[in-house]
Amino acid sequence: MVALPHHVDLERCTNCEEYFVGGSWRQMELDDAAEDSTIDSMMVISESVVVDVGTAFEKLDDRNFTISLEVTTDTQGYVSVNTASTTVRLKNVVCKRCSRQLGNYYESTLQIRSGSKDLDENIRDEIVRKVRSDVETAAKNNRSLFITRVEEVSGGVDMLLSSISMGRTLARDLADSYGGEYKESSKLVGKTDDGRDMHRLTYLVRLPEYSVGDVIRFNEVLYKLTWIGKNGGKLITLRDFRETTIRKSDLTSVRVETKEKDLKEAAVISTSGNEIQVLHPTNFSTIDLRVPENAEIGETVRIAMTDEEIFFIP
Ligand SMILES: [Zn+2]
Questions:
Q1: What was the pLDDT predicted at 277?
Q2: CATH number, domain at 244?
Q3: 161 CA distance to ligand 1 centroid (A)?
Q4: How many CB atoms lie within 10 A of CB 293?
Q5: Which of 8, 88, 139, 198 has the highest CB neighbour count under 10 A?
Q6: Domain end among 69, 94, 119
Q7: Nearest-angstrom CA–CA distance, 222 and 238
Q8: Is residue 117 in some structural domain?
Q9: Cβ proximity of 114 and 209 under 8 Å
Q10: pLDDT tens across 85-97, in order?
Q11: How far apart are CA 92 and CA 22, in angstroms?
């Protein structure tokens, strides 16, 4: 009532070590993969219904395994236990995804550049981390998605991606979350096997000079930029720590006063209510600074120094 072929070939990708079982590449243990592919190739007479399958795995050598099945069938009310066994042969191959990845295949390039001369290193690393994690998440449902290469180039970073739609989605997300803009350009790179034009897309994401955490000047007032989204940003005034919002159209007239990484630290001498005393970081005079209500003050605080004044950075 149950039969197995003389042998079953089980493909394993030498690069990602996944097994091809049931029509797709999967991450699984060898014995599970061998047993599942044996069950997939099992033949049962058409009048029988399989009620239960027990499996046993025996290793012959590194490439060959014996899989024995104990199959309970119900044939029009007649229940029987049948045994069958076969040899599973492990075949090393490279899956299509890995062969593309190893062959430097890519469909789109995500170019990250800054409005200032150089892209800030921290922002660059943050973006590369975010892109890696987004691609990893998306690849869980679509294993053809991957990053082919990340290249640091003068003025920014290029990320080569296996998919056009992934490039477009990432470009739009990054432009939104950093207050930047993106544009798309296409280049004909050849023909597909069936004669259609093949294009590669480039998504140039240009980030503004400012980023979250920077001290900026807008309408002659100093603010800390605390958030950027699709439609604008959030600010805190440095004079009295009031929160306010800024429209996307107004962000173009923002000037960067001090990048977050260039803020100075000052040692705290004393605190009392809304005021603290700190040491001037260069001439070591004592200065009074206003701080927000309930601010947690450590041994040092970050400050912004303009030509006229010094501010506590919340
Ligand atoms: Zn693979």
A1: 95
A2: 2.30.30
A3: 17
A4: 7
A5: 88
A6: 94
A7: 6
A8: yes
A9: yes
A10: 999 999 999 999 9
A11: 17
> Does residue 49 lie in a domain region?
yes
Q: Last residue of a domain, which of 207, 242, 271?
A: 207
Rounded to the nearest angstrom, the distance between the alpha carbon of 13 and the centre of ligand 1 is 5
Q: Which residues contact 122 (CB under 8 A, 6 or more apart)?
A: 261
Would residue 190 count as lying in a domain? yes
Question: Please, what's the b/e burial string for 272-286 (b: 16 or more CB within 10 A of its CB; e: otherwise)?
Answer: eeeebebeeeeeeee
Q: What is the DSSP string of 135-150?
A: HHHHHTT-TT--EEEE
Number of structural domains (the chain) is 4
Strand order in the sheet with 108-114: 147-153, 156-161, 108-114, 197-207, 181-191
DSSP string for residues in 1-66: -EE--SEEEEEEETTT--EEETTEEE---HHHHHHHHHHHT-EE-TTEEEEEEEEEEEESSSSEEE
- The answer to pTM > 0.70 is yes
* Residue 98 alpha carbon to ligand 1 centre in Å: 4
Task: Answer whether residue 99 is part of any domain.
Answer: no
Pairing of strands 264-272, 300-305: antiparallel
Indicate whether 55 and 134 sit together in one domain. Answer: no
219 Rama sector, left if φ>0, alpha if ψ -120 to 50, beta otherwise: left
The whole domain housing 234 covers 213-257
> What distance in angstroms lies between residue 105's CA and the mean position of ligand 1's atoms?
14
Q: Is residue 62 domain-shared with residue 33, that is, in the same domain?
A: yes
User: How far apart are alpha carbons 245 and 211 in whole angstroms?
Assistant: 15
CA of 14 to the centre of ligand 1 (A): 7
